[in-house]
Amino acid sequence: MRNGLHAPHPKEIRTKTNSSMEADSLVLWRRPLITLEYFFRELFILINTGLQRLIAYRVLALTIAVAIIGTAISYYISGPHQQYVHLVVATLAWWGWWVVLGVCSSVGLGTGLHTFLLYLGPHIARVTLAAYECGGLNFPEPPYPNDIICPAEVDPNYAVSIWNIMAKVRVESMMWGIGTALGELPPYFMARAARLSGAGVAELNTDDDSRTGRAKIMVQKLVQRVGFAGILACASVPNPLFDLAGLTCGHFLVPFWTFFGATVIGKAVIKMHLQKMFVIIAFNETLVGQALSWVEKIPYIGPKLEAPLLEFLRNQKARLHKNDSTQIPENQGSVLSNILEKFVLAMVVYFIVSIVNALAQNYSKRVGKKKSKKRE
């Protein structure tokens, strides 16, 4: 006992350290059965907690249930309304797909799936290349947006320009940006709950003197001092440390709409327009041809890389000039497209595995906290 405080017993310190190390070592490739068991237990707890919170807002829960049931009934009952219901459902599903991809990109404190590079960026590039090849942007719907074929006649209102291409992919980009903003909410609520309960957040520790630690301190000070403008500045540029902005806002009890509003404006409006413009400029016809000529000049491997790239571009251009997307041959892929598909699949599998490991470790820490409380 010193200054009226009880010093922790060495055994207690060792117990906490061991439990933390045990939770961090809980991964699929080391302890698969226990990891899967803890994953499903934690998933059940999260679903149960979410349902309880939803039931607490009875009016919102009832509205959502009525909307889902009404849409399902009208979707399957034949009538003149059915085509409009199908159109609305398909549009909402398309928007929801990009929101989910945005959430996956930013959730997990830096371990998220980089869906801009895997999905949104390639979609913008595909629309850009198709626009220059077809000479216009009035792609037939359907099959667009699931597939792109050149229009029979080009509408002058849809002439090829950077602004028209940006307008063509604006909804998808903004939905993805809104999803990334939603993915930043867990750190905010976690830090807010910890502050209200009197606990701290380990990620906000300012003792780290490394370059990353100094960058963390800079982000914290910017958000703490400037407020809305600071959050907007951090969200408007590609920033791997933006999770710290959410943690800082939650820790200092910044109002929810101040944080979320600045994050949505920064990510879904400002940053997305910058990223769109970069991809569109990078994939215009002139720069693509120049990039292929640079690839050819690489010693030894240049010609080997250029051949599959040219084959991939030729196949994509051939697909654009089909009058009916159902007439496109199925075996018209290339080595490059197969490699890209395998890469995307590997990234998705890695993301799923990291989510399973993270939830299992959370449950292990939850059990460790309960045991420590019982000892006390």
Protein described:
It is a single chain. The chain is mainly α. Among the domains are: 33-77, no CATH class; 284-318, no CATH class. It is 72% helix and 0% strand. The protein is built from 15 helices and no strands. The chain has helices spanning 10-24, 32-56, 58-76, 82-106, 115-134, 162-168, 170-183, 185-196, 211-226, 228-235, 242-251, 256-282, 285-296, 302-320, 335-375. The longest helix is centred in the C-terminal third of the chain and has 41 residues, at 335-375.
Run of helices and strands: HHHHHHHHHHHHHHH
* Poorly predicted residue ranges: 1-17, 324-333
Distance between the termini: 17 Å
What is the count of DSSP helices, taking H or I runs of 4+ residues? Answer: 15
Protein name: Vacuole membrane protein 1
Organism: Bombyx mori (Silk moth)
Keywords: Membrane, Transmembrane, Transmembrane helix
Transmembrane segments: 55-77, 97-120, 222-238, 244-265, 277-295, 343-364
Summarize the SSE layout with pairings.
Layout: H1 10-24, H2 32-56, H3 58-76, H4 82-106, H5 115-134, H6 162-168, H7 170-183, H8 185-196, H9 211-226, H10 228-235, H11 242-251, H12 256-282, H13 285-296, H14 302-320, H15 335-375
Short descriptors:
about 375 residues; mainly alpha; 15 helices; globular; disordered N terminus; Vacuole membrane protein 1
